[in-house]
Amino acid sequence: MKFAAATIKDIAKALGLSTSTVSRALRDSHEISTETKQLVLEYATRINYHPNPIALSLKEKRSRSIGVIVAEIANSFFSQAINGIESVANDKGYNVIISQSHESYDKEVMTLQYLSSRSIDGLLISVSTATKDLQHLKALHERGFPIVFFDRIVEDINTHKVMVDNFRGAYDATMHLIKQGYNNIATITNSENLSITRERVAGYVEALAQKHIKPRKQLIKYCFHGGMMLSEVEEAITQLLKVRPRPDAIFTGSDKLTTGTMRVLKRKGIRIPEDIAVVGFSNSDLIELLDPPLTVVRQPAFEMGQVATELLLQLIESKRPVKDFERRILATSLIVS
């Protein structure tokens, strides 16, 4: 038997009332007596009646839903950011529709087309590794569709952007390794396409330069899928182990790359930190269970989600076109083990 949601017509038929009377009673109209309102509300509760969201969206010209596109929900950083998004959206009466690009440009475009066709009110997006052509985003933005970028941003679209201080986070992590006596520090990082990659590599290079250590290109390895494919991390580490002098430490540029690097080094029988030290970006709580513990750069992911959602809702609910946009940069924390 196919499920059919209860409607105003069902209530009206059961109580012997007109649909307009039931509708007004549900809206708490002054035109309807207290007794009738109570009768309607009690019956509506009994049959689990809820207003049709599609009908409401047509009436209000707003769906009260926002879309979110991230690379991967299983990534601890993105899952914490989503929690922050939902905490604000739900409090403001908005539903959240979450999608994953899996670092695919085609999937990102297809997902965006689907979400926008379902009349979401706005979009929060952290672009995929493969996203170079921004036409799918520009086309929506030019039509006045509210978009806020978070974490992985693009400069070519003038809207709100929320990120962490990637440069400082990478600088602090690399400087920590230098102060611990490591001189041949490699970095394994995301695709060169991403804003976070460029900023984190710049922070790594600056820390080396300040200590008069010349950066070596062969010690900088880019992983296009950001560690989602362990094979690319393994290939990067295999190449690093051939460099002479061999790296004595590795700075990893994201959650997946940090855990992937540790897995690969363990497979190869390389001890951390005795043989090669590792410091990297990670928001995973599992890092705390390691023995010895790992020094990591933590991002305020939950706060980033909250801030991005607040800015998006401001765009959605503004009575006038917004012309002044914010660039929020949140501080990272170096958690020293």
Automatic annotation (TrEMBL):
Gene3D superfamilies: 3.40.50.2300, lambda repressor-like DNA-binding domains. One of its GO terms (molecular function) is transcription cis-regulatory region binding. Keywords: DNA-binding, Transcription, Transcription regulation. Residues 6-60 form the HTH lacI-type domain. Pfam families: LacI (PF00356), Peripla_BP_1 (PF00532). InterPro entries: HTH_LacI, Lambda_DNA-bd_dom_sf, Peripla_BP/Lac1_sug-bd_dom, Peripla_BP_I. The keyword DNA-binding applies. SUPFAM superfamilies: lambda repressor-like DNA-binding domains (SSF47413), Periplasmic binding protein-like I (SSF53822). The keyword Transcription applies. PANTHER family: HTH-TYPE TRANSCRIPTIONAL REGULATOR GALS, LACI-RELATED TRANSCRIPTIONAL REPRESSOR. This is Transcriptional regulator, LacI family. It comes from Chitinophaga rupis.
